[in-house]
Amino acid sequence: MTKRASSHSHDPPKVIIIGLGLIGGSVALAIRASHHVHIIGIDIHEPSLQMAKSLDIIDEGHTSISTTVQDADLIVIATPVSKTMELLASLARHPLKVGMMITDVGSTKETVVTESERLFNEHEVTFIGGHPMAGSHKSGVQGSRPDLFENAFYILTPGKNVDTFAVERLKRWLIGTNARFIELEAEQHDLLAGSVSHLPHIVAASLVHQLIDLKQHHPVLSDLAAGGFRDITRIASANPIMWRDILVHNKHVLIPMMERWQADMQTVQNLIEEGDDDRLQQFFSEAKRHRDELPAKKKGAIPAFYDLFVDVPDHPGVISEVTGILADHDISITNIRIMETREDIMGVLRLSFRKEADRQRGLDCLEAEQFNTYISE
Ligand SMILES: NC(=O)C1=CN([C@@H]2O[C@H](COP(=O)(O)OP(=O)(O)OC[C@H]3O[C@@H](n4cnc5c(N)ncnc54)[C@H](O)[C@@H]3O)[C@@H](O)[C@H]2O)C=CC1
Ligand SMILES: O=C(O)C(=O)Cc1ccc(O)cc1
């Protein structure tokens, strides 16, 4: 169902965000940063709406789509994918403004794009699938940031009936994300996201499951599972409902990938059993070569951090001196780690920043205080 525009021409455009979590909130903030708009948030969880309102992410909030959608110029659906499918069906039953646009942010694209093509076939509205390839294992609107997608790939999957002007229009809406837009076929998107994001997520969760079993007999294991284990399993702390939906909607990609994964595990097992040292080493060196070739600074499904290394003399108080200099210049760091203590009693601090600009400012002010800093890719 579509209807003619009814709002007054001087009213700011109306943007509706359905699902005010980490991603919905961050998209709202990015749109607000670049447009004069009225933003309506819709979420079944009332406290999320209140939080979004108090953080000035939305202008008004509602717990159902009801009548609010009819004047919308842009609707962004930012719920777990199965809910997105239901919401698309529900939107198609509502009167919508002619020429308005709907997009989503879900981690899988094919089922959503196919469903939208079926539902909006007769409507004068445009649906373009979207997937910002950045985020976090933390969920909820309180973690929203306008720069969450800065420099990240933001994949758009326009269906076959969508023209290039509509894609440009959506990019303009999302310009405040400062993301790098690329267009892919939904099918290709799901294959690639399956490989770099969905399968690794299953593996991370499965590693944690192994730990649960062993921990029952060896309580000290939790303490030992710091460092590498924490890094490789960080994503297993993400929202289980969201990940359940991703697996359900990317089933046909993930099943063959998991078969391949199991075959690879079997191969490694055979090499160990056969004592084939050469091929075992080859297994690791080939993986290392390809891993080392991955771009270091680009944001992808695994967020990159901007690291700065600082030589520090090994004396008490030096760490607070470094962090104090950064705090004095109002520069936030996301992580700090003592890398090594060298024989010549110098240590190395690794400081992680969220943005390249922050790292550069950090470098400038630490160098000004006579610290030796360097960047290593
Ligand atoms: N978390 C991440 O890092 C990324 C997530 N995505 C995708 O973004 C989408 C949202 O993820 P997050 O923001 O992380 O989740 P979240 O859990 O932070 O937020 C989801 C929000 O949707 C609301 N919601 C659920 N059902 C609803 C319904 N029927 N109507 C209205 N609101 C409803 C929830 O109350 C919640 O506030 C998912 O489809 C996910 O696949 C995409 C890129 C990155
Ligand atoms: O936290 C991380 O490293 C992520 O990989 C976040 C993420 C989760 C789901 C996506 O579809 C995209 C990015």
Automatic annotation (TrEMBL):
<feature type="domain" description="ACT">
    <location>
        <begin position="307"/>
        <end position="377"/>
    </location>
</feature>
<keyword id="KW-0827">Tyrosine biosynthesis</keyword>
<dbReference type="GO" id="GO:0006571">
    <property type="term" value="P:tyrosine biosynthetic process"/>
</dbReference>
<keyword id="KW-0560">Oxidoreductase</keyword>
<comment type="pathway">
    <text>Amino-acid biosynthesis; L-tyrosine biosynthesis; (4-hydroxyphenyl)pyruvate from prephenate (NAD(+) route): step 1/1.</text>
</comment>
<keyword id="KW-0057">Aromatic amino acid biosynthesis</keyword>
<comment type="similarity">
    <text>Belongs to the prephenate/arogenate dehydrogenase family.</text>
</comment>
<dbReference type="InterPro" id="IPR002912">
    <property type="entry name" value="ACT_dom"/>
</dbReference>
<keyword id="KW-0028">Amino-acid biosynthesis</keyword>
<dbReference type="Pfam" id="PF20463">
    <property type="entry name" value="PDH_C"/>
</dbReference>
<dbReference type="GO" id="GO:0004665">
    <property type="term" value="F:prephenate dehydrogenase (NADP+) activity"/>
</dbReference>
<dbReference type="InterPro" id="IPR046826">
    <property type="entry name" value="PDH_N"/>
</dbReference>
<dbReference type="GO" id="GO:0008977">
    <property type="term" value="F:prephenate dehydrogenase (NAD+) activity"/>
</dbReference>
<dbReference type="InterPro" id="IPR046825">
    <property type="entry name" value="PDH_C"/>
</dbReference>
<dbReference type="InterPro" id="IPR003099">
    <property type="entry name" value="Prephen_DH"/>
</dbReference>
<dbReference type="GO" id="GO:0070403">
    <property type="term" value="F:NAD+ binding"/>
</dbReference>
<protein>
    <recommendedName>
        <fullName>Prephenate dehydrogenase</fullName>
        <ecNumber>1.3.1.12</ecNumber>
    </recommendedName>
</protein>
<dbReference type="Pfam" id="PF02153">
    <property type="entry name" value="PDH_N"/>
</dbReference>
<dbReference type="InterPro" id="IPR050812">
    <property type="entry name" value="Preph/Arog_dehydrog"/>
</dbReference>
<dbReference type="InterPro" id="IPR036291">
    <property type="entry name" value="NAD(P)-bd_dom_sf"/>
</dbReference>
<dbReference type="Pfam" id="PF01842">
    <property type="entry name" value="ACT"/>
</dbReference>
<dbReference type="InterPro" id="IPR045865">
    <property type="entry name" value="ACT-like_dom_sf"/>
</dbReference>
<keyword id="KW-0520">NAD</keyword>
<dbReference type="InterPro" id="IPR008927">
    <property type="entry name" value="6-PGluconate_DH-like_C_sf"/>
</dbReference>
<feature type="domain" description="Prephenate/arogenate dehydrogenase">
    <location>
        <begin position="13"/>
        <end position="302"/>
    </location>
</feature>
